[in-house]
Amino acid sequence: MGPDADVKPVTKRRKRTEPKEHWEEIFEDRTFADLGLRNSVLKGLDEAGFKHPTKIQSELIPMVISGKDVLGQSRTGTGKTAAFGLPLYHLATRDLPFQSIILAPTRELAIQIASELEELGRFTPIRVSAVYGGTNIGSQAQALEQGPEIIVATPGRLMDMKNRGHIHFDNVRFAVLDEVDRMLDIGFREDIKKILGAIKCEHQTVFVSATISEEIEKLSRTHMKDPEKLVTTGGSLTVNLVDQHYISVQPWDKKKLLLHVLTHEEPDLTVIFCRMKRTVDDVARYLSRKGVDAHAIHGDMYQGKRNSVMNRLREGELGVLVASDLAARGLDVDDISHVINYDLPEDPEIYIHRVGRTARAGRQGVAWSLVTPEQGGLLTQIEMLANCHIPEKTYDDFEPGEAPSDIRDEQRAQDKRAEKLKSISRFKSQDSAPSVDPEKADPSKFPGGLVPTKMPPKKMGGRVKTARSMKQAVSEELRNADEKK
């Protein structure tokens, strides 16, 4: 590959600039040329507006070029795609089909990775093809017939293509897992094991993610050969450029408060994350009725519709996107100014990926979370994982609504049950037990004429003999009799 190689057309490219605010937190002083990349790769970087590598890029690229397996962890928005993608171009052999396999957990992320790699490698002859579900398999099969050197795929569709004979693993020299924490989660684990196990030739493996737990690291190492571990997260997993706050809210006030925030803060480009797909649709419809140009995206939508929404988002035609967590792994848009967690995720690691959709490549960003009273412990877990304090944000002009009637009725029922439990005591204390006055008692009514003056030293405590307890008592008596013999 040389600088005079064939140039691939790119439908839409955006010249990137590196912001100077907090520059030192993300970027290195040296240039991409200092990393030893070949001229055709450097030309693509220059055309895309990249001048200085990020910390993860400056450390991971030389490791891969040297032939090592690498397990890399870096905060979201720090350029991991270029970190593993640029060495693939630098080390690629022209016209060797399927030599690099990149696996991603979602269709959106696979599309995003392929698009970014095409942009970076446009001055090289190396071809990239995306393989993912939810779209016509015939067109993807035709693209594979051309023998692209780099394949970006979701695991399910890649296995399908291999079983159909459209792709083989005979030439694989590089296997990359992006978002490895999700790729080695329970849902993907068997697929990944089959894919990596089917690669019989000598190859390098590169696994990257923003969060890597001890369990995931242990699993990763079983698929790697003496990997180098690279961590460039610094003190906090969430970039310091993200202004994070939580907003206390009752569950029935969440949509009303969300609308209040959007209309009073006037963010530029906002992504709202919800936990469930039906909540995504419900919130998007509510905002649309209130005059907010909001669009939904989740896994139950047709792939064509999802692609259309994502394209409009990247082109700056959307103001508010309401998304499920599938988008948290595939949104790489520089201009997202705000992330709002409408639902706080149960898994703190998902919060890290959500918040990472803003403050990309050194830009400022804002992340707000709507937190209900019972979610205080979950918020603390998120703070511990992110290694940062998330302060509260209040809106004095917001007027909370009254709890719905069904919730009020349930609360009243709970209060009544609590009061009833307080008034009923199964075990009476000795002080409250009825006493016997010897002077007024009739001795003839007591055995032997002895009138008790206090409670007995031992009480039954409300216990009732059962057949099981009686059998145990008989067994104990027989055992005692045998011992005496």
Count of discrete alpha- or pi-helical segments spanning 4 or more residues: 17
Strand order of the largest sheet: 3-4-2-5-6-1-7
Number of strands: 13
- Would you list the SSEs in sequence order as H and E? HHHEHEHEHEHEHHEHEEHEHEHEEHEHHH
Content-based structural category: alpha/beta
- Counting structural domains, the number is 2
**Shape descriptor:** elongated
Would you state the CATH class of the largest domain? Alpha Beta
Q: Uncertain spans, ≥5 residues at pLDDT below 50?
A: 1-21, 425-433
Distance between the termini: 98 Å
Q: Quaternary state, please? A: single chain
State the helical fraction: 25-40%
Strand content: 5-15%
The third-level CATH topology of the largest domain is Rossmann fold
CATH architecture of the largest domain: 3-Layer(aba) Sandwich
Integer average pLDDT:
81
What's the gyration radius in Å?
Answer: 32 Å
Task: From the structure above, extract its key features.
seven-stranded parallel sheet; 39% helix; 485 residues; alpha/beta; 2 domains; Rossmann fold; single chain; 13 strands; disordered N terminus
Question: Secondary-structure map with pairings?
Answer:
Layout: H1 23-26, H2 39-48, H3 55-65, E1 70-73, H4 80-91, E2 100-103, H5 107-120, E3 128-131, H6 137-145, E4 150-153, H7 155-163, E5 174-178, H8 180-183, H9 186-197, E6 204-209, H10 214-222, E7 228-231, E8 242-248, H11 254-265, E9 270-273, H12 277-289, E10 294-297, H13 303-314, E11 320-323, E12 338-341, H14 348-355, E13 365-371, H15 376-386, H16 405-423, H17 467-484
Parallel strand pairs: 1-6, 1-7, 2-4, 2-5, 3-4, 5-6, 8-13, 9-11, 9-12, 10-11, 12-13
